[in-house]
Amino acid sequence: MLISICMCTYQREHVVNTLQSIAALRLPDHVGLEVIVVDNDEQGYAEKLVKDQANRMNIPVFYHQETAKNIALARNCSLDNSQGEWVAFIDDDEVADPDWLAQLLSTAQSYQADAVFGRVKSIYPSHTPQWIIESGVFERATVTNGQEVTSGATNSTLVSQAAINKHQLRFDSNYGLTGGEDADFFYRLYQHGGKLVCSNEAYVSEEVAGNRLNINYLLKRAIRIGETYTRYRIQQAPLANKLAYFSDVLLKLIILLFIVLIKLPFGQSKYAKPLLQLVDKYGKIKALFSSKTVKLYN
What is the helix (H) or strand (E) element at residue 165, kind and residue range? Predict the structure, then answer.
């Protein structure tokens, strides 16, 4: 069995560390790997880094370039060049646990799933503000093995090539500068009847980038996540569904506003998470009335 590990990169030297962690994966004897790296930098920043590291690995690594600044097109390039029965996704700022891929595959087979989402463990640099660590704003929700979901991300993921081909799935370039192309992609797989589950045992580690350790980035990301959710789930829905959605989100926003106000005197570590949840709800409502979106990859 061949698994294609797909990774997009943009001006990150850490891509070498990610490749090194892939080289150290422990896999069943019947599983082979290929790695597809797509550089989304028109100057080809990662070419030498990737090819030098590829020469030190005993698995094939293929370098490709997508010059259009669009993360969705870069992901499509990786899919177009993948040959595996399964496609795994990992980010260029992550390090895979040695059993990451074996656990994803085991979960996929055990639950007969079309896609499996592993965990991402956040690692904080030494200069991280204490309120960020205490608030847990970069921590992901706890999952159970085999837990079914309706969408997911490409940061620690395994998906069936057969399911991708059957439903002719590709990432939507309209999300190429905003992000959220992965959530849209997997939600469409779910709508086609695909089974999407979580793995509690499969994980990668990610050191939080220094330029993200501030409230401005977190607020911007929260708005974008809310906007994306509305865009791929609600924008094409009937008016009655939109009205029900608007009412539900508005009520939650009001409740969160009171929670934030109550927690405000106790410091940023206490109010940061509900504040970001509130801003997420604002993004959900905003996308109902405006086509202007936050661009994380601008």
Answer: helix 161-166
Radius of gyration (Cα) for the chain, nearest Å? 19
Q: What is the mean pLDDT of residues 157-162?
A: 98
Query: DSSP readout, 175-192?
Result: GTTTS-HHHHHHHHHHHT
Please state, in angstroms and as integers, the Cα–Cα distance from residue 249 to each residue in 246, 257, 291, following that order.
5, 12, 18
Rounded (to 5) percent helix, strand, coil in the chain: 45, 20, 35
Across 82-98, average pLDDT: 97
DSSP E strand stretches across the chain = 2-9, 32-39, 61-65, 86-90, 94-96, 115-123, 148-149, 156-160, 196-207
Residue 298 pLDDT more than 80? no
Q: Is the pTM here over 0.85, yes or no?
A: yes
Whether residue 84 contacts residue 161, with contact meaning beta carbons closer than 8 Å, is answered with: yes
For tokens 């797509």, what's the residue?
Answer: 38
pLDDT of residue 224 exceeding 90, the answer is yes
Residue 216: name the closest of 292, 132, 123 by CA: 132
Domain 2-211 in this protein, CATH class: alpha beta
DSSP string, 231-256: HHHTTTS-HHHHHHHHHHHHHHHHHH
Res. 45: pLDDT tops 80: yes
- pLDDT for 79 equals 98
Q: Helix (H, G, I), strand (E, B), or coil: what is residue 288?
A: helix
Domain boundaries, the chain: 2-211, 215-289
Non-local (6+) Cβ contacts of 123 within 8 A are 205, 206, 207, 208
